[in-house]
């Protein structure tokens, strides 16, 4: 039974409704689940096989389609992982607008409350938001015998002093959470949502954590996107700013945002974006990716545009492997936020491989 989508910063990428002829990522996974049931050789290994040498790539492919934790079933000794972080409904420390938010993740030995916290990573700063979806994930090497005994801490800050960004004492602490890493490892789908508290112990918002397995590529590759909106007047009648986001699928119904474009009301052609296959698909070409088109909706306070809300205008989702198989000149289905599935809504105008880079040119016709 699928979990509901994690509440995230802007409206989280929402799974497409199950409509006829629209191959959502979820429907693809259901089909693969049925295939595994029909072919026992695709099923999970038994617990008695836990000590055998395994192909980590195949391991990731199997467990990505389930809520089962591969770290629990298999005694994996070492594996790169991403900790994906987002918040919702956080406390506002800014007087006139909203927080300029960033997060810091630290660790210490589990149970050693007197030990110092050691910072293992921090996110980018997202301006004017109380519900940030961070693109910069926290990267770490999971070591089964050591990191299971770690305590994690996530601190959310408001950037009060940009000139001293690295000095956390000069920033505003919005709220914190800490807990054992095994809670996240053993959580259903390696996804969990918890409350954060401020310095006084009062609720300060909700934190969503996701743990994603990274497939180590022997020959790392990049993907370059060129996105064009053929007619922006349909989506943008008032000339407001448009932008797009790219996310990768982590588990069923959960996505991790990996790119946020610059917003523009003047250009129909967005700047090229280059994303490593590691970030776009966790190193696995069969991992589903999702491209969304958004429009900013400014919120006026006393006549001033202080911050923006966003409206999801439409999206498409497909794996890089499937996209690369579509010939230039062919079209794909686009899911319009208002009208639903639009056949031929996205055209492939460029599909080339140059060295270690996949180049994809997409035109939104819907």
Explain how this protein is built:
The chain is mainly beta and 366 residues long. The protein has eight helices and 17 strands. It has a nine-stranded mixed beta sheet. A four-stranded antiparallel beta sheet has the order 4-1-8-7. The protein has a four-stranded antiparallel beta sheet with strand order 3-2-5-6. The chain is globular.
Give the arrangement of secondary structure elements:
Blueprint: H1 25-38, H2 56-64, H3 70-73, E1 78-88, E2 101-109, E3 118-122, E4 138-143, H4 144-147, E5 150-158, E6 172-180, H5 181-186, E7 191-197, E8 203-213, E9 222-229, H6 232-235, E10 242-251, E11 254-260, E12 273-276, H7 277-281, E13 288-301, E14 304-319, H8 320-324, E15 331-336, E16 340-354, E17 357-364
The succession of helices and strands, N to C, reads: HHHEEEEHEEHEEEHEEEHEEHEEE
Number of H/I helices? 8
Q: Approximately what portion of the residues adopt beta-strand conformation?
A: 35-45%
Q: Unreliable stretches, pLDDT < 50, 5 or more residues? A: 1-57, 65-73
Structural class: mainly beta
Q: What order do the strands of the largest sheet run in, or round the barrel if closed?
A: 11-10-13-14-15-16-17-9-12
Largest sheet: 9 strands, mixed
Using DSSP, what is the number of strands?
17
Rg is 21 Å
Distance between the termini: 33 Å
Overall 3D shape = globular
The pLDDT mean sits at: 77
Helical amount: 10-25%
Give keywords:
single chain; 366 residues; mainly beta; nine-stranded mixed sheet; four-stranded antiparallel sheet; 8 helices; globular; disordered N terminus
